[in-house]
Amino acid sequence: MNVREVAWRVFAEEFNSSVLEHTGEGEKPASYVITPLGAKVNRMFVVGVVTDIEDIGEEGKQRFRARITDPTGTFYISAGEYQPGAAMTLSKMSPPAFAAVVGKSRAYTPEEGVKYLSIRPERIREVDAVTRDYWTLEAAKSTLLRADAIEDGLKMGQPTVAQLMKLGYHENLADGVVRAIEYYKDIDVERFRNTVREALRSVLPEGRGPAEAKRQAQVPKKAKAPSKGDAVGEEQMHEVDVGADEEDTVLKIIESLATGGKGAKWDTIVETAKSKKIDKVRLEEIVASLLDKGEIYEPELGMMKRI
User: Residue 150 in contact with residue 181, Cβ under 8 Å?
Assistant: First the structure.
């Protein structure tokens, strides 16, 4: 009897840094992508912002490819005739949108030294900002646990599953850690701890560091966000200084127009951008780029908010 694989919470940066594959045992062995922190990923659960969806199906065959970003990077997902539910959801989804994805890891090696990682989704569901933030916290906890396990394993020199289990780590993680240390050798654990810190800054106000404080200081003091119910007048619109580039300008517009903690209304962003000589078509291109970089997100339909 096959045991159902755990759905790992892994940030995009850790997953995309993986190059080690492992095949299990049995009549129908499972395949795994082993991350540098020892996650043996067969199934995974991720939540982020779907930034674009591409219809790549042939005539009579439905197939979609999409990108979903978390605070650390981008996952690539693909669903077709063998994932009809997921494909149907993608066909009806309008990016940008928050989504939760449960699926299987997939590694493709077209040539030696080149590896592409993606997720073959079992289920996709649109969610809200609260769900995304909760997943970020869960993924952070999971990442830090693996970082601790790797550090403990590195101290042992040649760790064994039994040794790591004595320290309280689950057998599945202990096995992944042993394989990761053997393959990846000197693992930069601090890099992934920094990944967690950056991810938490996107959901925890108290987690914002000096860089965020500097960014806030660059917003003109006069460009206060209007209180709930206030109209956005011409004076407020012109108090947003034009930044060094168009992205900086749009970021400042979104920040200055944020109301009630929900972000800025899209229609108001469009009107304000016009005063900065940025038309709607160009604005949509800039916003798509900012969403892809994780600088902003859509907390609810028709609203944009700076992270």
Answer: yes
Which residue type sits at 243? Answer: G
| pTM reported for the whole predicted model | 0.66
Are residues 70 and 131 in contact, defined by beta-carbon separation less than 8 angstroms?
no
Are 99 and 132 in contact by the 8 Å Cβ rule? The answer is no
**DSSP category for residue 170:** -
Q: What is the CATH number of domain 7-200?
A: 2.40.50.140
Query: Is there a common fold for 7-200 and 208-306?
Result: no
CATH of domain 208-306: 1.10.10
If residue 53 lies in a helix (H) or strand (E), which one and from where to where? Answer: strand 43-55
- In the chain (307 residues long), the average pLDDT of successive 10-residue segments reads 71 95 82 95 94 84 90 93 88 91 87 82 91 92 96 93 94 95 94 94 59 36 35 34 66 86 85 89 80 69 76
Short-list 219, 212, 306, CA closest to 258: 306
For tokens 């694989």, the residue is 5
**Separation CA 217–CA 211 (nearest Å):** 10
d(CA 77, CA 15): 13
Predicted local confidence at residue 176, as pLDDT? 96
Q: Per residue in 108-149, pLDDT tens?
A: 877 776 778 999 998 999 999 889 999 999 999 999 999 999
Domains of the chain, residue spans: 7-200, 208-306
Structure tokens belonging to residue 145: 């646990």
